[in-house]
Structure prediction request, 698 residues.
Amino acid sequence: MIGMLTIWSRLRSVCLFTSGNISKCMFDWQVAEQVAVCPDNQLLQEVCEQWKQHQVTMIMVRDILMYMDRTYVPQNKKMAVYDLGLWAFRETIARHGQVRDRLRKLLLENIRDERLGRLIDHNCMKCALYMLSELGIDSSNVYEEEFEVYFLKETCQFYRSESHLFLSQNTCPDYLKKVESRICEEMQRVPNYLHANTRPKLRHIVETELISAHTPALIESKKSGFCDLLRQSEEKMADITRMYALCFQVPATLDLLRSALHEHVRAAGQLLLNDEMKDPVVLLRSLLALREKYDNVVRNAFRGENIAQKKVKEAFESVINADTRCASSLVAYIDELMRSGLKGAAEGEVECELEKVIIIFRYLHDKDVFEVLYKQYLAKRLLNQRSISSEAERQMLVKLKRECGYQYTTKLEGMITDIRFSRGAMEKYNTHRDEKKMNEVDVKTARAASCDIDVTMLTAGYWPIHPAIPCVVPDVAASASESFKNFYLKQHTGRKLTWLTSSGTAELKAIFSDVAKHELTVSTYQMCILILFNALDFGEELTMQSITDATKIPHNDLRRHLISLCTPKYRILLKRSKGKGFSSNDKLRVNNSFASKLRRVRVPLVAMKELSTHPNSSHSVPAAIEEDRRHLCEATVVRIMKARKQAQHNDLIAEVTRQLSQRFHPQPQFIKKCIESLLEREYLERNASDARLYVYLA
Prediction:
């Protein structure tokens, strides 16, 4: 053991004082001085060369003294032979006063030169940095202390300066390409010559200086920034994808990117809504195109991530629910599809178009407004036989039912059922009438048979048509109506028929002169007005008051239908007085000089103010729908309280909101007013000890 101690002590003395013959196996101060006086352009190569020789020498010495390493060194807690050589190399060469700083400077200058596009010796760099990492013994990390700290600081300064300069002189897409290239270059340096532990630190600095520090500027830049790229997403999809990919590496910047996407989509949608004169169908098509555009951005550039999809959805919801215009525009768009847009479309194309409609429908909060408007348009299509596909109508109702439940479409489905039932009933009546015509020859039956009638039976609770006082119809029409009524009531006992003369159409054969013979398609009211002139002599006139007395048509409706018959394009009647207005004493006569290129002339009605879908109409929720909402909210509160018997205020608000969300999104203040109303009418009461606890009163 004493011999081993002597050997280890002499070996250490050699490392410290370079005495004895073993200096050839190790190194001496002459080697250190040789490296120290080496010029800068040769220093790196010289250090590497001496390091390689040192490694070979120390391996030989370690092998010779292997037995001592295995026995004496661990038992006496001494430094291993190889480590002792590393310690000596570090203290005499690596940390030599004339080597240490120069070596570090050369390493950093080489890296900077490579970043600037110059070629460097990767082998020497790798050897020198490997040497520093190997010299980290006895808890001393030479690589970090002598190189990495300075390298990271230099990297930070370099990219901070370069990024500001490059971004000020180039566009956003060019900068993104530069960043992508720089990150790849830096990551390639790790396998080329840097230590593996440097990778995460280097990546963090590069991403911070090149991405995090400039993300707000890249988003807000008016010169091809993120918002500008979104506007040109069809051509700039690759740049948007690159920007997302870079921000994805720095999660903190993704929120900025998503928020910018949300604000851009919202602003683009609001810009469409700000065009007050835009046609409803055009507006809806623009919204669909906008949604498709940014759906592609999320799917392709944002890799279909859920958070980005949610941001786009929220943006569209804020736009579409700004007022009721989008709900009315959606209904008008569906009406256009059902009337002509789906003509000749294949089954798959119909499904695709309806699915686009449903996507917009999902964004709507005021689904009850949509229901009221859709019912009006559907009624017009069905009654006027304007729908090109009954199957498409049913598909639309199936999709609405899937979204909102069966109660939402019960009345809409009932309207379609009424039309189908009416066709069957009319076939039976026509068969009955033909048989009766052959067997009966009395005058009344002959008059009824001379007027064809087509009746549509409407269930009162389904259709958005309010019963009006029936007008006085011509005898021939009245006889036909009575004949159908008698037949129908025999077939369906217990039912009641109310004629809606305010609706419906009639076809009249009109002879204005020997050459002007036309078939007029007019409303029922217009038919009643025109038939009155059959009893007059040529050129004789009727006053508006006499027409009112003869037909019992309400004043406002009569005025509207008379204006329609006196328009310049369809001037069937002539008014003696000038001006657009009508008074009770105004006189009218038949325009015997009326002429048209068409044999069949359809006389349209002038527009009437109603629950309009025109963009210039009020964008607030109609009063009738507000009233329906109040009743529905109160009924929901009572239903919940009846089941629970008592509930806290916040719990009741939350449950009512959840149950009503399929029809509309009630505000807490609205629900609170409904609760107050129920408290006043003693459906509920407050708990005596807790004012926020409601109790149901049976």
Summary: Confidence is low (pLDDT under 50) at residues 14-27, 443-449, 610-618. Strands lie at 505-511, 517-523, 542-543, 573-575, 587-590, 600-602, 646-648, 684-686, 693-696.
